[in-house]
Amino acid sequence: ANYLALQHYVPQIHFSLGANHHYAGDYELAIIHYETCLSVWREERADKSIGCLNNLAITQRAIGHYDEAEACHQQARAIAEKLGDAYGISSALIGIGNVRMCQKDYASAESFFREALQSNRHQCELEGIAGTMANIANAVGKQGDLQQAADLIGQSICVMVHVGAKRGIADALDVLSEILFRSGEDQIAAKLLGAIDQLRVALRTPRSPLDAELLTQNVAAMKDRLGDYAFHDLYSSGTLLSTEEAIEVGLGIKPEH
């Protein structure tokens, strides 16, 4: 009886281990745990398999396996639609949008994000709404509409602050820093990056490898334009800012494009 009781918890243990290994950057091991979990939940707990599929997709995306990632999100979406799971549907839609962002299909990504936003609004889930608005801002900014992107990310950050979503604030500030960078506001972007990195260290929430790679490219461009010394001086001053001060600095300048 005890053995059977323990077996009941095995998939959940693998799910938790998958999440822990993902956040530690051990993506291949995370995939093994998620797939082991799914081998049970696909048959026995369709409701729980939605979250596992979406998490597996996020891990696949982190290592550049975009086709596999979208396939997992599509499976999660299909199961969620069958079960009427609005949260699972919106999570899958956001996941597909993020895959399309990685593939630089920004218009398609925006479409999936906006569909997810409607689902979040129906659920009246403020943190989900704010996070999805940040995704839309990122997609819109990549397509060149920096003013709309700045307006959206400003709204997103305000909601994140209201609900106390610190990880969401870090992600949204990253989007804001890129909008500022793309708008030529390198001094503000560099200072904001220092604050964001301090916040991420405190929250133990590193960027994904792909986001880190993009940031490295942006930082190189800022150093070229500002000079190494000026960039590091601004970045260092940013590390001394509180989260509230960083938000004020970042939102103090809006693109004029």
Could you please describe the fold and organization of this structure?
- The protein is mainly alpha-helical and 257 residues long.
- It is 85% helix and 0% strand.
- The chain contains 13 helices and no strands.
- It has helices at residues 2-23, 27-44, 46-62, 66-83, 86-102, 106-123, 126-142, 146-163, 166-182, 186-203, 209-226, 228-238, 243-251.
- Helix 1 runs parallel beside helix 3 and helix 6 packs antiparallel against helix 7.
- The protein is globular.
- The N and C termini lie far apart (67 Å).
- The mean pLDDT is 92.
Q: What order do the helices and strands come in, and which of them pair?
A:
Elements: H1 2-23, H2 27-44, H3 46-62, H4 66-83, H5 86-102, H6 106-123, H7 126-142, H8 146-163, H9 166-182, H10 186-203, H11 209-226, H12 228-238, H13 243-251
Helix pairs in contact: 1-2, 1-3, 2-3, 3-4, 3-5, 4-5, 5-6, 6-7, 7-8, 7-9, 8-9, 9-10, 10-12, 10-13, 11-12
Describe, in short, the structure shown.
By secondary structure, this protein is an all-alpha fold.
In terms of quaternary structure, what is this?
single chain
Structural classification = mainly alpha
Mean pLDDT: 92
Tell me how many strands there are: 0
Low-confidence stretches: none
Give the number of helices: 13
Beta fraction = under 5%
Tertiary shape: globular
Which sheet architecture does the biggest sheet show? none
Q: Please write the string of helix (H) and strand (E) elements.
A: HHHHHHHHHHHHH
Q: Portion of residues in helices?
A: over 70%
The radius of gyration over CA amounts to 19 Å
Taking the alpha carbons of the first and last residues, their distance comes to: 67 Å
